[in-house]
Structures are given as structure tokens and as C-alpha cells.
Amino acid sequence: MRVPPVWVRRPLAVVGVLAALVLTVLLAPVLLLPAAALSLFTPGRWRAVRLLGFLLVWLSLECLALLAAAVLWVAGGLGWRLRSPAMQHAHYEVLRLVLHTAVSAARLLFGLRIVTDGPSWSPLDDGVPGSTNAMIVLSRHAGPGDSLLLLETLMNRDHLRRPRIVLKDLLQLDPVVDVYLNRLPNRFLTPGRPDLARQVGDLARGLAEEDALLVFPEGGNFTAGRRVRAIASLRGRGMHAEAGHAERMQHVLPPRTSGVLAALTAAPGADVVFVAHTGLEHLSSAADIWRGLPMDTDVRMRWWFVPADEVPGGPREQADWLYARWLEIDAWVGENRPAPA
After folding, report:
1. Are 97 and 90 in contact (CB under 8 A)?
2. Is 46 left (phi over 0), alpha (psi -120 to 50) or beta?
3. Is 278 helix (H, G, I), strand (E, B) or coil?
4. Where are the alpha helices (DSSP H) in the chain?
5. What's the number of CA atoms in the CB half-sphere (13 Å) around residue 338?
6. How many other C-beta atoms can be found within 10 angstroms of the C-beta atom of residue 79?
7. pLDDT confidence of 125, banded at 50, 70, 90?
8. Is 171 helix (H, G, I), strand (E, B) or coil?
9. What is the model's pLDDT at position 204?
């Protein structure tokens, strides 16, 4: 699917979000009673009511964030000073507040509990292991829900990072993602382009101590079909050792090394954090959310902190190291993913 040009997608998306919020607010009193009745026949306590409540919160946050973006555009000299440090900081603060509110609403409405296994990490100011270096965060790709929680964790008051994100161009169809992440240093990549690794390297160059480059090396959510195709692709390129490692991975896709190696080359002084998380990976569509959104359950996260001086040197050593870490992530996911409902 090709992303429409900005002058088409943004007006349509903004109008669509505003219309959805107005319609939901107007119909909420009418929908509340049927939602309560429907909840009696669906798993989870008050599932339909809680989903309706979160929809209102989410649409309200989208509209407020877009209003703030308009104010920042005017304050930034009608767009001329949006790249200034003050304007960049303001955009990060709005995003941090939006993400914190959304995650807090999910905790309250869905009873989600985020459980961190093992030591956490504190990049700037509160504990061990800690770092004042730039950071490259290599995360399992597990759907928008887990990714949202990860992004909020990077930006919250405990970690205070300014993320630079490598993400798919289709996510620009969300107006808040489109406006804010295009104003900040991020990269929307079209799958299949030959210059993907170069763009990741460009984004990693110049990372400051408060920055964190967030990369999803798998390139997409895990499915059995994608796993088979990835293994076949590795064998077709003569990468038999990597294919053998990939065959041992039952819950994650093999990492694509080119973008990660480009990031490590462009930011040789950066610490590295590997992230595994599980609990919301099966939620990719509205139908998935209705059928499978867990209620009153745990979302588990695990961090592996690697100081810059412990990152292997040389592309071959780094690729082997990446695969070894991904096998560790696969084992952790297998031990901690929730049982099928």
C-alpha cells in the first residue's frame, strides 16, 4: 500500500479523527447501555464498556495533540523554527504527556500491569546499571500495543530519553504520528527500498546523551509464514549459519543485520539495550483488540543493558552477537508469553 502525499493524508486524517471524536461523544450515552449488556456475554469484566471508554480517551488525546501541534506551528514562526532546540523539546514534551496519559488510561481501564523482569536500566540519573551515553535500543517487534508501552517507557520521567525511531511509512496514516514524528528526527521507511541501512545509519549519526535510537530489527510482527520465508531467504543468500540460528527461533523473526550494523558504525560510542516484551503481540487490528485484548493481566518486559565498550567490533562479530542475543530473546519470550485464551 502506498502512503498518500502529505497534502492528501493529513487533512483527511485530521477531519476523520475530529469526526470520530464528535460522533463517539454524541453516541456514548446511547452506546453505553448496549455495551454494558454486551459485556455480559464477552470475556473480561465489562469488556465493551472499557473499550468504549478507552476509545474516548484515545480520540480525545489525538485531537488535543493535534491542537497542540497547531499552536507549536504558530509559535515556531509558522513552521520556520520547528527545528530549533526549544521547539524540538516542546514536541517531545507533548508526545511524552500523550503517551503517559494513554498508558495510564490503559492501566486503569484494562487493568494492565507492566512487569519488568530482572534489573531495569536508568540511562541518565537514578541507578545501576546507568549510562550518560547515547543509546541504541534494539527491540522485538510485537505489535503496536507493546511498541507503545516501550516508547512510553523510554520517554517517561524515569528514563528521560528523546527517541529517534525507525518505523514503517504506513504509520503516517495516523495524524499524530505523521505530524509529530515528521517534525522530530525519525525515519519512515518503505519496505524493500535499497537504502534502508543507510537511512538508519544517518539517523544514528550525531546521537546526544539524552537520545535513544529505537530500531526493530525483525522488520515486522512474527508469523509462522514470515518465519519460513525469512529462513528461506537466508539460505537463498548463502547465509547458512544464520538460517540455522533462525530455525531455532520459535517466537521471533531473525534480525536483519544491515540496519543494526549501520547504526553501530554511525554511533560507536553508544550503549546498546536489547528489549523483549510479550503480552500484546497478537493485537494488530480492531478485530484483534475486540477478540483478544487481555483484561486484568500482566505485560512483561525484559531489558539487557550492554555498555558501549562491551559491544563487539567488526561487522562479522557484531552480526554473530546480534543473533546470539536474539536467540536469548526468543527463549525469554517462550518462557513468558501468556497462554492462549
Report:
1. no
2. left
3. strand
4. 6-39, 47-75, 85-110, 143-155, 175-183, 196-204, 224-236, 240-248, 257-266, 286-292, 315-336
5. 19
6. 12
7. very low
8. helix
9. 94
Tell me what pLDDT residue 51 has.
84
Q: Is the pTM value of this prediction over 0.85?
A: yes
Which of 319, 338, 334, 280 has the alpha carbon at shortest distance from 138?
319
Q: How many whole angstroms separate alpha carbon 103 and alpha carbon 109?
A: 10
d(CA 50, CA 56): 10
Give, as one character, the DSSP assignment of residue 169: G
**DSSP structure string for 34-83:** HHHHHHTTSSSTTHHHHHHHHHHHHHHHHHHHHHHHHHHHHHTTTTTTTT
| Angle, helices 47-75/85-110, rounded to nearest 10 degrees | 170
Other CB atoms closer than 10 Å to residue 162's CB: what's the count?
19
Task: Tell me the per-residue pLDDT of 168-183, one tens digit each, with 9 for 90 and over.
Answer: 888 899 999 999 999 9
The owner of cell 525507525 is 166
Rounded-to-integer distance, Cα 327 and Cα 330, Å: 5
Rounded Cα–Cα distance for residues 323 and 30 (Å): 53
Classify residue 213 by burial, with Cβ atoms within 10 Å: 0-12, 13-18, 19+.
buried
138, 276 contact by CB (below 8 A): no
Q: CB neighbours of 65 closer than 8 A, spacing ≥ 6?
A: 94, 95, 98, 176, 180
Amino acid sitting at position 215: V
Q: What is the pLDDT of residues 33-81, one digit of tens each?
A: 887 777 676 666 777 888 889 999 999 999 999 999 999 999 999 989 9
Contact between 204 and 156 under an 8 Å Cβ cutoff? The reply is no
Cβ(250)–Cβ(116) below 8 Å = no
Sequence length of the chain is 341
